[in-house]
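Structure tokens please, single chain.
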Amino acid sequence: MSSEIEQSSPYVEIHNRDANGPVVLLCEHASHHIPEQYHGLGLDPAHRHSHAAWDPGARAVAMKLSERLHAPMVASRVSRLVYDCNRPPEAPSAMPECSEVIDVPGNHNLTESQRSARIDSVYRPFCDAVTSVLAQRAAHHLPTVLITIHSFTPNFHGRVRAVEIGILHDADSRMADAMLAQSQRLPHRRIQRNAPYGPEDGVTHSLKLHGIANGLANVMIEIRNDLVATPDDEDAMAQELLQLLHPALATFELELASQKGKQDA
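Here you go.
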């Protein structure tokens, strides 16, 4: 089983592609990198590494979960301000002109050809990488739960967010329900369903496209980013999430075994 990082395009990485645990991890907002041709999107330098540009701590936590769950991970290697891989091409927020109170001059008045170039260079390679990983697992009859990892800012438009870990879902709540049923294992954490965002905010695109459309149980995990501010914090958070994930995944053992049996038949 390889744990090497594979770059399927300049803007996508695949970690642990051949891992055979019951999970595939996605991290759509893993990087704040803005390729040179976008000239920093005209951003104030102070904003280029802010939460508007990426999800601080998300990739590190996803990498740790990838190792401990023996799970493949697909991550974007470009800032979500260039293209947000958790948004469909038709969504204005895929290439936002403004993020919270941060203006993004390089996204103003984009032409159709400019939008198409970003879709083709950032979004489609990410989706193709996810499809490739899922297809490889299907070919090897490996049942799969899809999990996406994100982080969020403690303060949004001047409002303090009390939630610390959000467990998000769209129409398929099976994995979210199973994780929330284990929340007593982390009594010191404020854990909530579909918070600080929910399906109505357009944040479940990956769950629908790669999870629900493929019949896979799925969940999105949102971590308040002040809880993953250091490498020690990231490691501690991964360990906490495993306290929810291991028993939640165990509840799927019979379903996953049945899924595998049908594939083997």
